Each structure stands twice: as C-alpha cells, then as structure tokens.
Amino acid sequence: MANTVTQTPAQLTYRYERFRAVAAGIIETAGSTFLVLGAVRWLGAGPIAKALVAAGTSAGLLISPLLVAWVAHTGIKTGVAAAQMAILGAAGFFIAASGASIFTFVLGSVVGMACASAVVPILTQIYQDNYPEHERGFLFSRTMAIRIATAALFAHLAGHALTKRTELFPALLVVFGCAHLGSAWCLHKLPSRNLLPAGDAQLFSGLRFVKQDALFRRTLAAWMLMGFGNLMMAPLRVEFLSNPKYGVAIGGKPLTASAIALLTGVLPNLARLAMNPFWGWIFDRVNFFVLRIVLNLSFLIGIFAFFSSASLAGLIIGAVAYGIAIAGGDVAWSLWVTKIAPPERVADYMGVHTFLTGLRGVVAPIVGFQLAATLPISTAVWISAGLIAAACVMLIPEVRYGARARAGRVLVEEVSE
How many CB atoms are closer than 10 A to CB 319? Predict the structure, then answer.
C-alpha cells in the first residue's frame, strides 16, 4: 500500500491502463468482428439491423459531449464516471446475450459498444493531466499494444470456437460484459479530477470552440471526409467475407468464422501491434498534419487492397495494410487535440471531435450497407477513396501549423477567423 501511495499519477495511470487494455482488447473484437458476424450468421439480420450494430461505437461517440457536460456539471471525477459507464455497458451485453429477439440483441450490442466509446473525451483529459507531454504518445501506445495483442489473440480463439460451435455466441456476449466489469474496476482506480465547468452551462457548449478556433474547425472538416470514407467501408469487411453473394471463398468453400476473424481481427491487430510503438514515437516528434496525411493514404491503400481482390493474398495484404493504418490512427485520433487545445479544455475539444466521429459513424455504416445492397462493392470503394483523397488535399495547407507546439489561446487567437 505504501508503494502505491508513492507512485506518481503517471505511474498509477500507466499501471491500471495496462490492466484495462486487456479488457478493452476483448471488447474491441465485439465491434470489429463478432457483433456483425453474429447479426449475419446467428440471427440473419437485415441491412438496417446490421448497420445499427456496426454503429454502436459511433453512437457512444455521438453522446460523448453530453457525458463531458454531465461530468462537469455534477462534479463527479472523470475516472468514476468512466467506471459507471463501463458497468452500464456490461448490462448491455448481458441483455444482448439473452437472445430474446433481434431487437434485444441490437439494443444490448449498441449499449455495450456505446458505453465503451462515450468515455473517450474524459480519458483523453486523464492522459493530458497525468502523462508528461513528451511521453504521452509513447505511454499511450504501450498500453495500446497490450490492447491490440489481446484483441488479436481473443479474435483467433473466439473465431475458432464459433467455427466449431455456433451456439456459443451468447456465451461470447457474456464474456464481453465481464470485460466491461473488469474495465470498470481499472477506471475507478485511475487518478482523476473534476472537469472545469463550461461557462454557459449548455450541453454542447464545447461546440463553441469550433467557431473560435479556425485550425480546429478546418481539421475537423477534413477529418469528417476521411472518417466517413473509412467508416462506411469498415463494417463491410465482415459483410464482404461472410455474405455468399460476394463469392469470397478459399478452396471453393465459404470462409469459416475462424477465417473471417483472422482477416478482420487477427491479422490487422498483429500489424497494429508491430507498428503501434513506432506511431506513438512518431506522434511525439513530427508534424501532426503530415502524419495525418500519411495515415489517410495508408487507409486508402488498405481499402483498395482488401476489396479489389477475392484472392487470399489480396485479402491478407489489405488486412495488414489496414492494421498498419489503424495503428497510427489509434494514437492520432485519441491524442491529437492535446497538440492544439488549451490543457484545461482538452475534454471539451475531444468531446467535439468524438461527437462528429459518432455522427459520421452512425450514418456511414448505413450508407455503406445500402450501397453494398444496391450497387457493386467497387462503387462503394471508389466513393470512399474520393472522400479520403479530398481530406488529404484539405490538410496540406495546415502543415505549416503542425510543426509548432501547442500555445494555448495564443495559437487559437492567431488562426481564428
């Protein structure tokens, strides 16, 4: 106990975040692979139900500014609030596991994934408060590596189990719920504080920073294009591999659940695991906007490689390229506002960012599934590529700002319009 007391906030955060990374890795496989797979093969759900399940994480991001406002208004500590959300997420997965109907499965799945993502802004504030600026990307990437390794291993084991016994799927949902409970214990242990209340007491008061900060506004616009293009294709990976109409097969046979988990969970996560420390190191040292453009191009390559070939080699290349891009995206998406936001307003800036991510994340899967249902998959790929390319072009003029360290309100005033 005495040893724990002497630890710094950075050490304590790093310690419990490593434990939580295991639970987060398990939950991540739900959103990336198993919930959509269950909707397709366990329940035979339609495109709207599949899209809603795929949008669960985005729904949480959509409500994240509300959570930030609630935490600031009530004075509850950020770590405690995040723990309470994790407990609610566990309840969602337990409801989904009941198997009462497609409705309860969709509802429980959305709640389970939404609670995992809604806490992102307050977690970013915790990282801002507890991690030194010169090590923030490095420490985050180290815990992310544990999460990625867990996700890869769990995706392999769960995919193998479902291949042999499909009836185990409800038990898998229970495992996701238990992972949420483990995450809640870790979150409650994190050193945290109360958020600085917003001056106007409005639920979406953080949106005022979009008006005040021109650099923030332009970056969000570019990210909206890139994110929409990526998120409309992400859930289609499982659809592309599991739906017989696309004819993806190995040796003339449809892909098993294990093979689908390998291509959508294991291989991308192994690539993430290998590259995540590199991206964390790069984030602390290079121009952020150059990094973002490089990551956008990496996503573009991954999408083309995955969906343009039904061969095993093409699918593997696409899965690995996507994993490399995701590795950098993990760090950049989670920490980029710490580069430009005033330290006491990181949660507010991140709340706006996650809200817009959630907005496109709810709409993009629906658009993607509807396009796939009515048009060739190649059309969706080209639409996605066009959006990502446009985002790269929009970010080029911002490169001149990324080379500078954050200077709080000075930077905001200098670039405001």
Answer: 23
Q: Is 99 exposed, middle or buried (0-12, 13-18, 19+ CB in 10 A)?
A: middle
Cβ atoms 249, 255 nearer than 8 A? yes
Cα-Cα-Cα-Cα torsion 118, 124, 127, 128, nearest 10 degrees, comes to -150
pLDDT, tens digit (0-9, with 9 covering 90-100), for 86-96: 999 999 999 99
| Buried residues in 343-353 as b, exposed as e (16+ CB within 10 A) | eebbbbbbbbb
Rounded Cα gap, residues 235 and 231, in angstroms: 7
One DSSP character per residue, 369-413 reads HHHHHHS-HHHHHHHHHHHHHHHHHHHGGGHHHHTSPP-THHHHH
Distance from the Cα of residue 369 to its chain's centroid: 19
Spans of all domains in the chain: 2-415
Q: What is the pLDDT of residues 165-193, one digit of tens each?
A: 777 888 999 999 999 999 999 999 999 88
> pLDDT tens digits, residue range 111-126?
999 999 999 999 989 9
In CATH, the architecture of 2-415 is: Up-down Bundle (1.20)
What is the DSSP code (8-state) at residue 347?
H
pTM: 0.75
Phi–psi pair at 177, nearest 5 degrees = -65, -40
Q: Which is nearest to 175 in space by CA: 78, 263, 247, 96?
A: 96
Task: Name the one residue in this structure whose structure tokens are 């650099």.
Answer: 215
Distance between first and last Cα of the chain? 52
